[in-house]
Amino acid sequence: MSKDKEKSRIVQLRNLLNQHNYNYYVLAQPKISDFEYDNLLNELIDLETQNPEFSDSNSPSQRVGNDINKEFKQVVHKYPMLSLGNTYSKEEVNDFDSRIKKALPNAEVEYVCELKYDGVAIGLTYKNGKLSQAVTRGDGVQGDDVTNNVKTIKSIPLQLSNGDYPEEFEIRGEILFPHDGFLKLNKEREIEGEALFANPRNAAAGTLKIQKSSIVAKRPLDCFLYFLLGEKLPFDSHYENLIATKNWGFKVPEHIKICKNIDEIFEFINYWDVERRNLPFDIDGVVIKVNSHKQQRDLGFTAKSPRWAIAYKFQAEQAKTKLLSIDYQVGRTGAITPVANLEPILLAGTTVKRASLHNSDQINSLDIRVNDFVFVEKGGEIIPKIVGVDKMLRTAESKAVEFIKNCPECGTELIRDEGEAKHYCPNDTACPPQIKGRIEHFISRKAMNIGAAEATVEALADKGLIHDVGDLYFLTKEDILSLERFAEKSATNLIESIENSKNVPFHRVLFALGIRYVGETVAKTIASELKSIENIKKSSIEQLTEIHEIGDRIAASIVDYFKNEFNLKIIDKLKISGVQLELIEDVNLQFENKLNGQSFVISGTFEKYSRDELKELIVKYGGKNTGSISAKTNYLLAGENMGPSKLEKVKKLNIPIISEDDFIKMIEE
Ligand code: IVH
């Protein structure tokens, strides 16, 4: 194929794929099979790879995302991203209507009622029909630029189809995680031993913040649009504009209705308060907006929200059922949580059998008794909670709750410190769930980064193959192969991963030990001050508190940790195994003066390191980092999206521009 032909085929494929995307994700009416779609997409990817000069950041091929790891840029919103006045009461909706009628006397007011989608707000800017930027709400004034992640959401058009859209506009909407995708994601996370998302909203927010858009691309996010902003909008009413955006390619849900009076508004609210259970995504209320833009302008804004709109929120869903018994769970830190066993009941689409009771105060203050009928509510959390008792239904069967005195796992007498909300099991060295919890912390990514799932730790501990983190280093391949679901390859991987953890630097080992109050930063500070586990072990509270940022509470906890025989034995095991128990300084010293006092200015965004990490590296290797370019600047370390003024200046001063890779070579070779 000639270059010209390749170019026109690329354009043709992009148009075709955009149209099929729209048919599938917006209209839900696919016209070709997945197989045919993939063939077209692969052809496009091949042609674009062979002809990089025709690349386009809005090509449908970009929807697969990439692995680039960058921090999100903060962007100031062109129009502040306000929220809405909220209410749970119909009376206040009536008041809203009265206020509007009063402010606009003699005018006919038309309302638009919409669903209040429960997701993450997003502002999409389009220039000449192309998506140019996607920004989260942030603090309302500025938010995160999540454009690359948003580009992977198939129902958001990258290129608009009809030509009658304004040259530049912003459209706002809500990014959602539909129920089926959410349940699937949590199931996968459970299998992988990862923390579950509490609800679809959290899953959507968490996904949008992922740094690798290739992972975002694999999650089925969706987006509903509800608000058009710009200098030159096609119509003077909200409703007509929204319908117009549908023709440009946006997904605007059908469930919007023009209401002429308050009765019609309540009809819409009442209908959706019931019908919401049948939607494939979460809503948490209804939004009521004045339709006419002129009237919206006349009504204006308060400091926080528009006067022309209000959100009516539905009550969290509740159900009544019988409390059968109470179990007590022991957490990783030894904290005891009472959990209610309930007569199974359907609530917000799932069967509820258990609910958290938090602590003994909660049981007492609600006066909850076994065999009572209790109200269960599903809020933001995965586990529903008990919010009250129907005392009218209390019978002689009801039995007061006697909070347990001993740990249900190991029998140790529980304690409750003054001011603490929960009872604790103090047997932190031998109580099984606490042992497992500490091992899970030890192997976690930010600590020793050993690749084992929660279920593996559990199985190893249950089989008695490990009792503490030190035992991990004495595991053999045969031990691991004796577990279910492990084969030669996965066992070798685990052994390798444990072996690799011996290279984890001392400050992370210190963090991994799970000493109370010793988080990542404290561990770093102490490691750099005291240099080795032996020195820390020898330190008194007074010596520890001399270190900047270390207070009495942390110091006492460290001293306590090293007084404990059990912990000292763990340290011995780690020492014998070759885990890093002291700071290795020669790495720093060896490279210390590589940059020889030369001065660097950093500009743009980078792939491998964050800007702060690069600054640290410059200083560590004996260079200087300055904010602005002058004749004294030796290098401009340039990433992507570098400011044009900086570029002009370095060119004028003839200062060499180096890339991130050039810089890494300078310090590593
Ligand atoms: S309109 C200035 N319409 O709820 C008015 N917001 O509590 C802009 N939301 O910030 C918002 N569904 O994140 C509007 N149909 C809808 C909505 C909606 C959900 C969210 C949005 C907003 C928040 C307000």
What does this structure look like?
There is one protein chain. With 669 residues, the chain is of the alpha+beta class. It folds into six domains: 3-64, Helix hairpin bin (Helix Hairpins, Orthogonal Bundle), CATH 1.10.287.610; 76-313, D-amino Acid Aminotransferase, Chain A, domain 1, CATH 3.30.470.30; 318-393, Beta Barrel (OB fold (Dihydrolipoamide Acetyltransferase, E2P)); 432-503, DNA polymerase, domain 1, CATH 1.10.150; 506-577, DNA polymerase, domain 1; 587-668, BRCT domain (Rossmann fold), CATH 3.40.50.10190. It is built from 25 helices and 22 strands. The strands form six sheets. It has a five-stranded mixed sheet with strand order 2-11-10-3-9. The chain has a five-stranded antiparallel sheet with strand order 14-13-12-16-17, with no helix packed on it. Strands 5-4-7-8 form a four-stranded antiparallel sheet. Helix 1 (3-26) runs antiparallel to helix 2. The longest helix is centred in the N-terminal third of the chain and has 24 residues, at 3-26. The model is unreliable at 586-590 (pLDDT under 50). Bound molecules: 2-(butylsulfanyl)adenosine (IVH).
Structure summary:
The protein has 669 residues and is α+β, with helices and mostly antiparallel strands.
List keywords for this structure.
single chain; globular; 25 helices; 669 residues; 6 domains; alpha+beta; OB fold (Dihydrolipoamide Acetyltransferase, E2P); 5-stranded antiparallel β-sheet; 38% helix; binds 2-(butylsulfanyl)adenosine; D-amino Acid Aminotransferase, Chain A, domain 1; Helix Hairpins
